Amino acid sequence: MIVTLDPEAPKSAVDAVVAQAERYQGVTTKLYEFVGAGATVREVHLIGSTRAVPVEPFEAIPGVRAVSRVSVKYRLIGRHGKDAQTHAFDHNGVTFGGEKVQIIAGLCAVDTREHVDQMLAALAREGLQATRMGAYKPRTSPYDFQGLGGACLPWVFELCGKHGIKVVAMEVTDARHIEEIDRALQDAGRPTGVMLQIGTRNTQAFELLKAVGQQQQFPVLFKRGMGITLEESLNACEYVASEGNGRIIFCLRGVKTHLGDPHRNLVDFAHVPVVRRQTRLPVCIDPSHSVGRLDAAPDGLTDVFHVIGQGLITGATAVLVDFHPRPQAALCDGPQALTLDQLPRLIRYAEVVQRAYREARAIGEIAG
Ligand code: PEP
Ligand code: MN
Q1: Which structural domain, as residue segments, surrounds residue 319?
Q2: Residues 268 and 314 both lie in one domain
Q3: 303 CB-near residues (< 8 Å, 6+ apart)
C-alpha cells in the first residue's frame, strides 16, 4: 500500500501515517521522497501483509492525498492510480519529463577536443542545453575503440561550461566511474551536470544498478535491455529506484532481432505508451542505436527522423541522438551519426511532431 502526501503536508502528517501503520502486525513502513521539477512528492510505503489493512484511516489523515493498493511489480517506478503524476525532475536547471522535449544530441564516443568543441558549439547555437558524450564505451569487440575514459573528462566538462551545456548524458559501465566523474566535475569547478547512462548491455548488471541507485547526485538514463522483455527491463530499472534514486528516465533503443533488418535493431517505440502507462518515468527514445543507419524514405526524411516522429507522437519527452561533425572520422557508430547541419532541421521536425501530439492528445479523454 502506498500513502501519498500532499506536497505541502507537514512532517506530522508523515508521522501520523507511520503511527497508523504501526498498529498493524507484520507491516513496516518506508518513506520515499521524489524531488520533482515542481514539487517534492512524499510517499509512505506500507510493506508486508497489507491485505487486511483498511485504506480509510489513512485517507482520513489530514495531508494525505491518495492511498493506493499496489498489486503490480513496479512499486516505485510504477504508475499506481489514475492521478499519479509523471516524475518530471530538474537537473542543473534542465527539466526532464516536462512539457518541453529535451533533445540530448552529441557524440556517441568522445574522440577529439576539436570535435567536442564543434558539437557543443552547434548545440549552443540552437539553444540546446543537454548533450551525450560517451567516455566509457562498452564495445562488442575488445579490439574496438573503448572510449577515452577518465582522461577526457576534464576537457569535456570544461568545454560544456564554455558552451553553456548544463547536462551531459554519459554511460558508466562500472561503479568506479561514478566516483571518477564526480572527482573530475569537482576539479573542473562543476561547470556542468552529468546524467549517468546505463547502457543496454548493462540493463541487468544489478551491482551497477545498485551503485547508481545509491547515490542521489546524478539522475539516471536507463536503457532497456536489447534481448530481454520490457517487463524484465522495468524490473531492472526498479532496482535503481529501490536503492533510493528516483530521478530516472527510461530509454527505448530497439531490440536485437534480424526481423528488424535493415535497421540495426527492431525499433520498439510502440512501447512508449506502454512505459508511460506502466510507470511514472519520463520516456526517452534513442533513434540512432535502434535504426543504426541514415537511409532516407522517398519523402527525403531519414528513418532516424521518422522514428523520432513515432516516439514523440506517442508522448516521449526526450530524444537521445548521435551526431558527429565528421561521421566518417568517428571512432564509434559513425554510420548512424547525423551531421551538424542536420541539427536545426531536427529541432524543427521535432517541434512539428510535438504540435501534432498536443493536438492528438486532445482527442484522448484525459489531458496529460
Ligand atoms: C550509447 O548510447 O552509446 C549506447 C552504447 O547505446 P546502447 O546501450 O543502447 O547500445
Ligand atoms: Mn553508439
Answers
A1: 89-367
A2: yes
A3: 263, 291, 293, 294, 295, 296, 297
- Closest atom of ligand 1 to 134 CA is 3
> Over the stretch 120-148, which tens digit does the pLDDT of each residue have?
999 999 999 999 999 999 999 999 999 99
The closest residue, in CA terms, to atom 4 on ligand 1 is: 199
Q: Are residues 124 and 247 in the same domain?
A: yes
Q: How many domains does the chain have?
A: 2
Tally of helices (H runs) and strands (E runs) in the chain: 11, 14
Where are any strands of DSSP class E within the chain? 2-5, 27-35, 40-48, 64-68, 89-91, 94-96, 102-107, 130-133, 167-171, 193-198, 220-223, 248-252, 283-285, 318-322
Q: Are 178 and 312 within one domain?
A: yes
Query: What is this structure's pTM?
Result: 0.93
Verify that 192 and 135 share a domain, yes or no: yes
Q: Please check whether residue 38 is in contact with residue 90, taking contact to mean a CB–CB distance below 8 angstroms.
A: no
Residue whose CA is at the smallest distance from ligand 1 atom 9: 200
Return the pLDDT at 34: 82
Mean pLDDT of the chain: 95
H/E element, 117: helix 113-125
In a domain, 80, yes or no: no
Q: What is the pLDDT of residues 259-315, one digit of tens each?
A: 999 999 999 999 999 999 999 999 999 999 999 999 999 999 999 999 999 999 999
3-state secondary structure of 202: helix
- Retrieve residue 12's grid coordinates: 506530522
- Which residue's CA is the closest to the ligand 1 atom numbered 6? 199
Which amino acid type is present at position 219?
A: P
pLDDT digits 0-9 by tens, 147-202: 999 999 999 999 999 999 999 999 999 999 999 999 999 999 999 999 999 999 99
- Clarify whether residues 30 and 157 are in a common domain: no
Q: What is the CATH number of the domain that holds 62?
A: 3.30.70.1140
> Which residue of 204, 286, 331 sits with most ligand 1 atoms within 8 Å of its CB, as the best mutation to test the pocket?
286
